[in-house]
Amino acid sequence: MSTASAQTSSIETPGHIRRTKAGVTITPFYDGAKPNKTLQWFGSKDVRIIEKKKPMVTDAQDVVLRVTSSAICGSDLHLYGNYISGMEKGDVLGHEFMGVVESVGPEVQTIKVGDRVVSAFDIGCNKIPCTACSREVYSGCDNTNDSEKQAALYGHRTSGIYGYTHLTGGWDGGQAEYVRVPFGDRNLLKVPRSLSDTKVLFLSDIFPTGWHATELGKVGPGDVVAIWGCGPVGMLAAASALYKKAGRVIMFDNQQYRLDYAKKHMPKIEVINFTTTPTLAQLAQMVPEGPDVCIEAVGMHYADAVHKVQMLAMMEQDPSNILNEIIMATRKGGRIGVVGVYAGFTNQFNIGAFMEKGLAMAAGQTPCQKYWPVLLPLIEKGMIDPSFVISHEMDLEKAPEGYKIFDQKTDGCIKVVLHPNPAMAA
Fold first, then answer.
1. What are the φ/ψ torsions at residue 53 (nearest 5 degrees)?
2. Structural domain spans, the chain
């Protein structure tokens, strides 16, 4: 769904218009003459390649992309396993994507047909006023998500997110041949043709998210940084911390192949596999006083037996295992950054230890657009190359296989990149 202000002019199409508390919502308009191959969700671990109609410009600030590359994110696995509510059969997945501009609305000013662009996963707006976007909190945009259920759950709505449940607006995702991007000037970044898709694709999400984790934790020179989760986001958080001259970076995971992969690409980091000895016991030997900064890059995907039972019994929505472990580990007066995805309520949260130790914790979905002016130059100068996390590339038709190996952690899978229009990928 697209949300447009009453003041914004719209393209004259037979799109159905209805009013909501969030503004005027315009149902997307599709070109029935042009097919669009998409990856759609049909239930737990059931994703299918389905052809639907190609999206068209519906609002004057829309851009339609022909997608060249789209990645499977760890957050997509929460949807794949049906851990987050709000999915509907036939929803198009994918929030990490880039492509070539196919068409633009008449009010788009900075993006032109033929431009090569990366899209932010979080959907900001160009409206005045928008209290969130005016503060560069684009992931909290006031105007791109009309979910009343989310407003009731959180007190406010977050921004819309592509391919990520109707709690975040029900937007079609970018694991498709074509995708419609609203407010194109705000949400698209033009990238130079000299850089390959693989180098810039992750500006859509996981590179800014890894960087955001270090910003939330205020990582600085000499800091000891501990990172829970050695997936792509955790790895890029580690790369960001090293760039910021952290004194030590320690990563935890229960998959040795992921730890080995991270160590191979970042020899300066230290790694711990917690399947042999508990994390806190090992960390206490390595850093007796505790790390200065701890980063949570796991989210709801990890739960012990107690929390699995509570979640199955609908007694809670998210586990508190990792957060409690981080609170116990962080030095007194230390800082915590949370970028792992959580959706609702949790039990047994150790608020006492958090308060008594004088800790600071910050969390949130990443405002990608805020970090683009910093991160694109780092890629251009060769300071950080996010493409090192890619282990698999495949055509869109093989996406169900990509989800399976990523979810099951088989075939050495770290990160899967899909190519809906492989001939156009740079």
1. -75, 150
2. 2-205+367-424, 206-363
* Structure-token match 């600071």, residue found: 360
Residue 135 is classified by DSSP as: G
| Spatial contact of 397 and 378, defined as CB atoms under 8 Å apart | no
pLDDT by residue (tens digit) across 331-384? 999 999 999 999 889 999 999 999 999 999 999 999 999 999 999 999 999 999
Residue holding tokens 């609170």?
A: 327
| Residue type at 57 in one-letter notation | V
Stated pTM of the model = 0.91
**Roughly what angle, to the nearest 10 degrees, separates helices 206-216 and 368-380?**
110
Domain 206-363 CATH assignment equals 3.40.50.720 = yes
The DSSP line for 370-384 is HHHHHHHHHHHTTS-
The CA-based angle 289-294-297, given to 5 degrees, is 150
What does DSSP assign to residue 188? E
Return the DSSP state at 87: -
Where would I find the beta strands (DSSP E) of 115-244? 116-119, 122-123, 160-161, 178-181, 188-190, 224-228
Distance CA 36, CA 177 (A): 6
- Of 74, 309, 60, the C-alpha closest to 184 is 60
DSSP letter assigned to residue 93: P
Is the distance from CB of 365 to CB of 373 less than 8 angstroms?
no
Helix (H, G, I), strand (E, B) or coil at 151: helix
Q: Are 127 and 135 in contact (CB under 8 A)?
A: no
The reply to whether CATH 1.10.10.10 applies to domain 2-205+367-424 is: no
